[in-house]
């Protein structure tokens, strides 16, 4: 233990040697390994590190990229609007059954008919297997068995009657024509995808910025960073840039999925969509920064983030139109950032509305972004 | 000799009531390894974070290499390598990526490879930080400080919770840094670490320096460099106070401390004190159960100083 004594002497000598060295200049290492870093070296390293970290976090990949796609897929399938589906009808077996079937099949109507025993036909009708039962009577009359409470049954009756009457030689006194126009643009999936996109930008912005920052603060990593010459603005800029890069992937994936899986049509320009995405990412990044500005624990910031997002999940028209809420509250709903983003995305993607026509929505987004960034930077605690 | 750190009358009051520092004075010379010792809650971390420019002091003056944090923060940050207490670095980055990230913040850092080699982390350079052992993580934390090519290294309890081998490795790293002319400030509550590494040290308690000097100086201040420890059997363990005075009166005894029936005497000359002690024990008709003698350590200084301090309150 007492060997401290000789050691101290040796140290003192070393220190004295150094001191004379110090007079000559910097005491730091002056070997070949020392290199120089440029102005943006810190920023680029921070950005690359952030992207690598996200890429190595399987949960991030799932929640940010896969989950919205699964949601879109599931809801898109469940609420798909079937093209006026083929009516299924049963023709009661009998002497004229075969002739009736041929008459039905002559028609171009979306009908699927088959001949079955009357008892079985009635039973199948009751179970919903058939929309309509046609019973050709011996008297030459055709009897329709249908259920006026079932829309598909009413439709099947009209279609079948039309088919039989035409086959029997009826001519229409009025020339009419029809063109199908119910396809892409007005379906539920078309409504849903821009909404999911907005919600995803909100989720990943709030969690990606808010949660990540508080996690770093709790780990004392923020404090460790500010103990270096790192520019604080570079750090925030790198975080923002990583969000923007991620946003482009999110937009591309969700819209691409809509286009390929559901033949969605994108009416607006991609530039406008990406600009909107960037504005949305910035707004929710700002809100994430604000929620993270003081919180010391990830538990408290999680609660805060959910509290902020909850009203927007409900009111901002992600899954259904907010028009269903009473008109009195519409101005408040429209003042929410997610409502503005969803409305703007829908107008651009589905209707091709130019950004210039949406000044009000853009102003709402810009205001939220500006206020939250301003407050966040004023309150933000690095340590 | 020029000073790396000079601070005067440092006070820190948290939330207007908790007084963590009450007038701390320190002088750390360039090229030395200076230790801050103290029990938990003594104010070591508060002091070191003020010196590192991470925490504003309530009052007092701090100079680092003659500069102040208010005016020369950017320059000072380039000069200091800091390892905080319990920083958890990003677990999903590799060791090399972490070092390169930290090196990117400095104008003239050292090469990452060189620092990795120096800290024995080359083999682990492609391993995720999350997969490192405690000792490796601590070495990585020091590596993030050393890659700065700093003039001064701040280590806040660098070896807490480490196994003996990892502690020894860190001691070597600190020694090497110092041998290249670097200045080191470290806090610790391991007395052997302080004795081994520090050229000078200050013992802090309740936010003040209660003793400062080289380890031998501090030990000398005990009044004796030897400790005689013994315990006596029979009824003699009763009546503590008067008994302690008896021991204090023995020839050559500088101070007495009793703990769990074990009595420690600080003495200058054991060969004078021990015969007197034996006489006293046999006079009392008690039985000597245990007797050892050893050289005094910083542990003794620390216990004596903080112990007395606590009793005075």
Number of helices of chain B: 11
Q: Which chains have the largest interface?
A: A-B, 46 and 60 residues
Share of residues in strands of chain B: 25-35%
Mind telling me the CATH class of the largest domain in chain B?
Alpha Beta
Q: The biggest beta sheet of chain B, please?
A: 6 strands, mixed
CATH superfamily of the largest domain in chain B: P-loop containing nucleotide triphosphate hydrolases
General form of chain B: elongated
Shape of chain A: elongated
**Overall domain count of chain B:** 2
**Spatial separation of the terminal alpha carbons of chain A:** 39 Å
What's the topology here?
The complex is a heterodimer of chains A (383) and B (313).
Chain A: H1 4-24, H2 41-55, H3 58-78, E1 87-92, H4 97-106, E2 111-116, H5 118-127, E3 132-136, E4 142-145, H6 151-167, H7 188-218, H8 221-226, H9 232-262, H10 270-291, H11 298-315, H12 330-334, H13 337-351, H14 359-379
Parallel strand pairs in A: 1-2, 1-3
Antiparallel strand pairs in A: 3-4
Helix pairs in contact in A: 2-9, 3-7, 3-9, 4-6, 7-9, 7-10, 7-11, 7-13, 9-10, 10-13, 10-14, 13-14
Chain B: E1 3-14, E2 18-29, E3 33-37, H1 44-51, E4 59-64, H2 69-79, E5 80-83, H3 95-103, H4 112-118, H5 134-146, E6 152-156, H6 164-179, E7 183-188, H7 191-197, E8 200-205, E9 208-213, H8 215-221, E10 226-233, H9 240-248, E11 253-259, E12 262-267, H10 270-284, E13 287-295, H11 298-312
Parallel strand pairs in B: 3-7, 3-8, 5-6, 6-7
Antiparallel strand pairs in B: 1-2, 1-4, 8-9, 10-12, 10-13, 11-12
Descriptors for this entry?
heterodimer, A: 383 residues, mainly alpha, 2 domains, 14 helices, disordered N terminus, B: alpha/beta, Rossmann fold, Alpha-Beta Plaits, 6-stranded mixed sheet, 4-stranded antiparallel sheet, 13 strands, 37% helix
Summarize the structure.
The complex is a heterodimer of chains A (383) and B (313). Chain A is mainly alpha-helical and 383 residues long.
């Amino acid at each position: 233990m007492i060997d401290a004594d000789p050691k101290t002497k040796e140290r003192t000598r070393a220190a004295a040697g150094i001191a004379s060295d110090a007079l000559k200049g910097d005491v730091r290492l002056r070997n070949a390994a020392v290199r120089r870093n440029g102005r943006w070296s810190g920023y680029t390293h921070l950005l690359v590190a952030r992207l690598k970290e996200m890429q190595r976090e399987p949960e991030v990949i799932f929640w940010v990229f896969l989950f919205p796609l699964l949601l879109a897929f599931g809801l898109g399938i469940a609420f798909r609007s079937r093209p006026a589906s083929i009516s299924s009808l049963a023709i009661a077996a009998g002497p004229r059954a075969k002739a009736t079937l041929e008459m039905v099949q002559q028609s171009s109507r979306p009908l699927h008919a088959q001949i079955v025993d009357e008892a079985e036909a009635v039973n199948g009708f009751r179970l919903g297997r058939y929309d309509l039962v046609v019973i050709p009577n011996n008297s030459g009359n055709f009897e329709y068995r249908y259920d006026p409470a079932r829309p598909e049954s009413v439709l099947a009756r009209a279609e079948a009657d039309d088919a039989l009457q035409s086959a029997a030689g009826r001519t229409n006194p009025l020339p009419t024509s029809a063109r199908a126009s119910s396809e892409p643009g007005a379906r539920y999936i078309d409504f849903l995808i821009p909404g999911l996109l907005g919600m995803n930008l909100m989720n990943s912005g709030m969690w990606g910025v808010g949660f990540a920052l508080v996690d770093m603060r709790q780990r004392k990593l923020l404090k460790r960073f500010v103990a270096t010459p790192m520019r604080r603005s570079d750090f925030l800029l790198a975080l923002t840039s990583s969000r923007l890069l991620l946003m482009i992937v999110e937009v591309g994936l969700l819209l691409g999925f809509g286009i390929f899986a559901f033949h969605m049509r994108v009416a607006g320009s991609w530039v406008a969509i990406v600009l909107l995405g960037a504005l949305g990412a910035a707004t929710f990044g700002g809100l994430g920064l604000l929620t993270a500005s003081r919180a010391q624990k990830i538990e408290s910031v999680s609660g805060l983030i959910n509290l902020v997002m909850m009203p927007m999940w409900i009111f901002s028209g992600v899954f259904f139109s907010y028009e269903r809420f009473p008109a009195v509250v519409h101005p408040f709903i429209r003042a929410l950032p997610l409502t503005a983003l969803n409305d703007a995305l829908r107008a651009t993607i589905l209707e091709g509305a130019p950004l210039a026509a949406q000044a009000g929505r853009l102003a709402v987004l810009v205001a939220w972004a500006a206020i939250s960034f301003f407050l966040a930077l004023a309150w933000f605690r690095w340590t | 000799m020029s000073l790396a750190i000079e601070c005067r009358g440092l006070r820190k009051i948290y939330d207007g009531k908790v007084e963590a520092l009450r007038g701390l004075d320190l002088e750390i010379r360039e090229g030395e390894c200076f230790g801050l010792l103290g029990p938990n809650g003594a104010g070591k971390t508060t002091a070191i974070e003020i010196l590192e420019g991470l925490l504003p002091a309530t009052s007092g003056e701090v100079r680092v290499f003659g500069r102040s944090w208010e005016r020369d923060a950017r320059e000072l940050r380039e000069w200091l390598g800091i390892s905080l207490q319990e920083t958890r670095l990003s677990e999903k980055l590799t060791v090399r990526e972490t070092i390169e990230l930290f090196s990117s913040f400095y104008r003239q850092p050292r090469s990452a490879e060189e620092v990795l080699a120096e800290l024995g982390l080359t083999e682990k350079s492609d391993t995720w930080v999350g997969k490192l052992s405690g000792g490796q993580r601590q070495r990585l934390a020091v590596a993030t400080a050393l890659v700065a090519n700093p003039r001064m290294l701040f280590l806040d309890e660098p070896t807490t919770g480490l196994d003996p081998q990892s502690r020894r490795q860190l001691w070597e790293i600190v020694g090497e840094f110092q041998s290249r002319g670097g200045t080191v400030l470290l806090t610790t509550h391991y007395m052997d670490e302080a004795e081994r590494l520090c050229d000078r040290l200050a013992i802090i308690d309740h936010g003040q320096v209660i003793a400062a000097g080289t380890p031998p100086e501090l030990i000398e201040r005990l009044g004796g460099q030897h400790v005689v420890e013994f315990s006596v059997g029979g009824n003699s363990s009763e009546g503590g106070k008067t008994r302690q005075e008896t021991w204090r009166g023995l020839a050559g005894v500088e101070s007495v401390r009793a703990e769990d029936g074990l009595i420690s005497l600080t003495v200058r000359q054991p060969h004078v004190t021990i015969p007197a002690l034996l006489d006293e024990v046999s006079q009392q008709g008690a039985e000597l159960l245990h007797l050892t003698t050893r050289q005094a350590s910083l542990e003794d200084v620390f216990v004596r100083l903080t112990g007395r301090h606590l009793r005075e309150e």
